[in-house]
Design goal:
Helices cover about 75% and strands about 0% of the residues. It is mainly alpha-helical and about 475 residues long.
Length: about 475
């Protein structure tokens, strides 16, 4: 009896040895966060690390759905315009309303993820995307088409925050960068899928394909664990330990990691409950500047202008647009995959610096090609310069600036402000994304080569920002990162 009482006291003090049930060979049964029974037995099924990879795979199905939403409008423009008799203004609204939906999703994403959990937020996003795709599929006019596009945009806005945050919270420190970067890789795969498949199937059928990754995600969420850090923050000690043990493997010793997480959360609980305006308090200001600053750097360097109008850029430079677009898509996938492989070895900061430097080179080459075209100098060299510039640009973006800001955003915000701060950073990303895509044509009509001079200058400023403000987070736990930044 005394021994049992001592065990209870130790558990309340978070000092219980977590592996005790495994070592003793006892069979313990708990209800997990979805009320499914999870059994733990000693000596059997050693190493359950595959749960971590399964959970990541299920999660990045949302990233693939995200990419499908972005890529949908490009290959079907002529078909959907002709089929529904849309004017240019109506189709332009259909294309751009996605960004407004994403902004709304970004604003609400943090609150939803904090209130319903990371899995709950992904369910909300998947539901909106599914409803949006169905509205697009059945649309017979611009109104349901725009409602569907707005709904898929909302889902994208939620996905863009919760997916990198969830993956970062479930990953061990030595895998966190690579696993979080797979989100960006799957976004690009989703875009490429829409680009390629959209050329051989109808636009309504393409809309239905967007439901597939949403369905896989919704089904997969039934079997994967919730974020242990979110569970711990919400005071669910038992489910926190179960989720962490499942993610690390049955035979893994999670006592040190569990203690570190709980100690960090106890320290957070001693602070006053955070409000929206608390984001701008001195102790959080550095993490806000880093998160929002990286989102500005990512978008203001011109990526959406180049991405959305890459076919026009190739055509205006005299290079076959179909060939250029295929090369562009393949390079983007390959280099993003490479970035995922090296991020935990090379580090976040070096990849950002290499990426921003390459973006400057890409802007110089592309700008030079348009300068030569404007003044009719060395006309034979223009296509090669333009293609080289665009490929250097997209390759450089994919290796670092595409994924790493999202990785760092998922690492730097403390749990007590993560929802609000993450929403702010995501909103900054989507609003600047819209601004760049909206102004690109105006800038090009003003000065084609001048546009790339502006983008190159912004990327140079980004290098200074990265050198002076952004910390290296490789090889450190989330708690160590957040304590160092917000000390």
């Amino acid at each position: 009896m005394a021994n049992k009482q001592n065990m209870k006291v130790a558990e309340r003090n978070d000092q219980v040895e977590i592996r005790v049930p495994l070592i003793l060979g006892q069979k313990a049964k708990f209800a997990d966060e979805d009320d499914y029974a999870v059994e733990y037995q000693t000596g059997k099924d050693k190493g359950r690390e595959w749960i971590l990879y399964l959970t990541t795979f299920v999660t990045v199905c949302g990233s693939f759905a995200f990419g499908s939403c972005i890529g949908f409008s490009s290959p079907i423009q002529s078909a959907i315009t002709e089929d529904l008799n849309l004017t240019l203004a109506e189709y332009s609204l259909f294309g751009s309303i996605l960004n407004f939906g994403a902004m709304i999703g970004a604003i609400t994403s943090g609150r939803i993820a904090d209130f319903t959990g990371r899995k709950g937020a992904m369910r909300v996003a998947s539901s909106f995307c599914t409803a949006g795709w169905l509205a697009i599929y059945f649309a017979e006019g611009p109104l349901p088409l725009n409602i569907g596009r707005l709904a898929t945009g909302y889902g994208m806005g939620v996905y863009s925050y919760v997916i990198p945050v969830f993956i970062a919270e479930i990953s061990p420190k030595h895998l966190r960068g690579a696993l979080t970067t797979t989100s960006q890789l799957m976004i690009i795969c989703g875009i490429s899928f829409a680009f390629i498949v959209g050329t051989v199937i109808t636009w309504r059928t393409l809309a239905l394909t967007g439901i597939i990754p949403c369905a896989v995600l919704l089904l997969g969420l039934l079997i994967v664990p919730e974020s242990p850090r979110w569970l711990a923050k919400n005071g669910d000690h038992e489910k926190f330990l179960i989720a962490l043990q499942r993610l690390r493997g049955k035979e893994a010793d999670i006592s040190e990691e569990a203690t570190e997480i709980q100690d960090y959360i106890r320290n957070l609980e001693k602070l006053p409950k955070s409000k929206l305006m608390d984001l701008f308090q001195r102790r959080y200001l550095r993490s806000i500047i880093i998160g929002v600053g990286l989102m500005f750097a990512q978008q203001l360097g011109g990526i959406n202008g180049v991405c959305f109008y890459v076919r026009d850029i190739f055509e205006s430079a005299g290079f076959p647009s179909d060939t250029g677009t295929i090369i562009y898509a393949c390079l983007q996938v390959a280099v993003t995959a490479l970035g995922a492989l090296v991020i935990d070895r090379a580090g976040r900061k070096p990849l950002l610096l290499v990426s921003a430097s390459g973006l400057i080179v890409g802007c110089i080459l592309t700008g030079l090609s348009f300068y030569l075209k404007t003044y009719e100098i060395a006309l034979n060299a223009i296509p090669a310069l333009a293609v080289s510039g665009i490929l250097v640009y997209i390759g450089s973006f994919s290796i670092g600036m595409g994924a790493v800001p999202w990785v760092i955003m998922s690492e730097i915000f403390p749990l007590d402000i993560k929802g609000s701060a993450g929403s702010l950073a995501t909103l900054a990303n989507w609003s600047t994304s819209w601004a760049v895509s909206y102004t690109f044509n105006f800038l090009i009509s003003w000065s084609s080569y001048g546009t790339y001079i502006i983008y190159g200058t912004i990327n140079a400023i980004s290098i200074l920002f990265i050198l002076m403000v952004v910390p290296e987070t490789k090889g450190r736990t989330l708690e160590e990162i957040q304590a160092a930044i917000n000390a």
